[in-house]
Design goal:
The structure is a homodimer. By secondary structure, the first copy, chain A, is α/β, with parallel strands linked by helices. The first copy, chain A, is built from 15 helices and 18 strands.
């Protein structure tokens, strides 16, 4: 009798796809042992430029095709690994694979964040599975814990550093005192930031990942568009200096909380206590802190991107899919939807705030500022006032507030901006406990 | 048609068992939703004293039995949760459950460390599964990552703080400058240490957990007896003071490494760089750092014990077992054994060392000490020498070495102990990079 084999098709041979191709070929023996059946790479869908890569030169050329129809017609292909990235054509290919009854593994955060529920539905209909551990946090186990290890918990909150590029930039700004532009340039030189860095530095990438984690944690559909978002490009050196002085680090945090079926999801810079574990997560590392009602606080830390860490997660998912195929079961877990959950409007959140104002250096200014806050019951926990520019006769006022409502705070900012004595609202950053 | 239900039997109603009973009853709805079939608690095996507990008073008394035969005769019991702890009768009950074709979930680190391979074999023969996420690190996902998320990796090393009691004691010694005895007393008052603390403070508990993690990580059978072990009871205040001065924290670390099929497993106090993440893990928290060849460094952090965190892991395992039962599959993962791996003798390990000596305060002593080390090619990276006791005319010498072999170091310690100018080898602690 011919031994059963599990056939794998790979779409994409870029950074992630190349890493996956290497792992599937270099350690076929190890993976076969973990599955219990041989895993065989059957076909790789590439685009023309991929064929010039050194890796493509090393591999058997009959594995490659640039034609999607040919790829999908490959016999004995049980699993399709999508490592193309971006919304299209990845989404189309994933649907095609599922419709053809193939199990799919993907590292595509954008597609899962935007269309995860639809893909999981399609998989259920076809009796197959969708595996997406690599879509968030590279090789750090993050999807599996929510699908398995933490299932008995009601999740209260997620606090995550899930974009390595911005964390690298913030780390350099904090350590070297350089400004955003220089830190970004350094990140680009090192290959940590792309030529067009918007997706990372404006927090878009983080909203995809947060939408996925929040959907799993709260068993509801959180769309990336539901996530309030601010990037890091407007942070100044001065904020880092004040943060240090006040005992904080500045991080781009992805936050998701649930209370009374209201789900709060936001990505923005925060002041975070410098002795907290998240404050110590430096450079391109990622960390996700989860608060569950049984488990308490658990934290997952590691490299959140890169060819090897991501291929670790993809290969684990390929093994999981292959085991499920061998057992003849579809993947049991997914987004199951609890009814009645709503997204909390940003105006209704509560936070503490850090506020830096450039003001006219004359008596009574602080009193005016205090009145604007006090009128809205926003109470001040500390103030620093110091001369900013002797010639221009301006001073800088830095205020930390006690917890206050976002709507009240935005209204206060509106009135402050109108005050003649205020030259500029230089910074406005939320503070996490 | 009658809807299928998954029946659960629970053995033990102590701290862990009580927590599990609460979770299974209080959130039956949530668990049922996660499984897709109703989970029903059928029977609880207790010992007489358990029946007096408030929890037992709240529960339906017909659930209880003190008789193991009656427990095992309960109809419709698909899963047995063992929360008794200790080697016997837990092992006997687990074998009995498996032999009767029941899936078992256990939080019993001692049984899994000593008899895990045997139990997994028995489960395989009967087509059922053994689930033991709760045996290490409370609710922190640690077993699942090795069985699933990290399977494509070759694991190079594990560095773990996996005993909350000792970490609490070391944290107090470091922060408050108190000695071991006072810190232990405080831990006992707070319920973090038992009346007889030996199992924790001598590192025995940590060897069980490390044996389990190393067996999974390296796919070989590591017995607790294979683990080199030193506890924390001989650490002195002075060591903490020098550690701080030299830029280190002191932690009880469980270390497992593999190189060339040689597995190194040890539990002992270490000096660890104070800016490392593990150095920041304080109080009763646990953390496990794993180094994989693809994933790089990943760290898992959380509460490593307690009724709620442990019941989070047990309940997740019950859900996993129930899903497997519903799908009609046995648990796919376990210890699979790679041939040819051996335990590296402690004498062959390499480390850096911290050495504190009480010596006669007279010229030439340091030269003698240096000669003993130099003769064995152990090179010194830093030395502190200071007066210890003017009346007794003794000095203290603190030496940090470069990496050296353990055998050479032990031989040096032997010769140093014989030198007339050396009053005492006060401390000898390994240093982790």
């Amino acid at each position: 009798m011919k031994e059963r084999k599990i056939g794998v098709g790979l779409m994409g041979l870029g950074v992630v796809g190349g890493g996956v191709a290497r792992v599937l070929t270099d350690r076929a023996g190890l993976l076969t042992e973990r599955v219990g059946l041989p895993l065989v790479l059957r076909k790789v869908k590439v685009i023309e430029p991929d064929l010039a890569r050194p890796l493509a030169q090393e591999m058997d050329s009959s594995l490659f095709t640039t034609d999607a129809d040919e790829f999908f017609a490959t016999p004995g292909m049980d699993i399709v690994v999508e490592a193309i990235g971006g919304e299209e054509p990845a989404l189309r290919y994933l649907k095609r694979a599922l419709s053809a009854g193939k199990y799919v593994v993907t590292s595509n955060k954008e597609v899962i964040a935007k269309h995860g529920a639809e893909l999981l539905d399609l998989a259920r209909q076809r009796g197959v599975g969708v595996y997406f551990e690599a879509s968030v946090g590279g090789g750090i186990p993050l999807i599996a814990p929510f699908q398995h290890s933490l299932v008995a918990n009601r999740i209260a909150g997620i606090y995550a550093i899930i974009n390595g590029t911005t964390n690298y930039i913030l780390t350099r700004m904090a350590r070297d005192g350089v400004d955003f532009t220089s830190a970004l340039k350094k990140a680009q030189e090192l290959g940590y930031a792309e030529a067009n860095p918007e997706n990372d530095v404006e927090g878009i990438d983080a909203t995809y990942k947060l939408a996925i984690l929040a959907s799993l944690a709260f068993q509801t559909q959180v769309h990336p568009g539901d996530v309030y978002r601010e990037g890091i490009s407007r942070l100044s050196n001065r904020d880092f200096r004040y943060a240090r002085e006040l005992g904080y680090a500045i991080k781009l945090l992805a936050i998701a909380k649930e209370e009374n079926k209201e789900v709060e999801v936001r990505v923005h810079p925060v002041f975070i206590a410098e002795d907290s574990l998240l404050a110590k997560v430096d450079g391109v590392y990622n960390a996700v802190l989860v608060e569950g009602d049984l488990v308490g606080k658990v934290l997952f830390f590691g490299e959140g991107a890169g060819a090897l860490p991501t291929s670790s997660a993809v290969a684990a998912d390929v093994v999981a899919a292959a085991r499920d195929i061998a057992l003849g079961v579809s993947s049991g877990a997914g987004f199951s939807l609890e009814p009645g959950k709503v997204i909390k409007p940003m105006a209704e959140i509560e936070s503490r705030y850090y506020l830096r104002l450039n003001v006219a250096d004359r008596p009574g200014v602080l009193a005016q500022v205090s009145r604007v806050l006090g009128d809205r019951l926003i109470s001040i926990s500390s103030v620093i006032q110091q001369l900013a520019d002797e010639v221009a006769q301006t001073a800088e006022i830095v205020i930390m507030t006690h917890p206050a409502g976002e709507a009240a705070m935005q209204s206060a900012l509106g009135e402050l901006a109108e005050l003649p004595v205020i030259k500029e609202i230089s910074s406005f950053i939320r503070v996490e406990a």
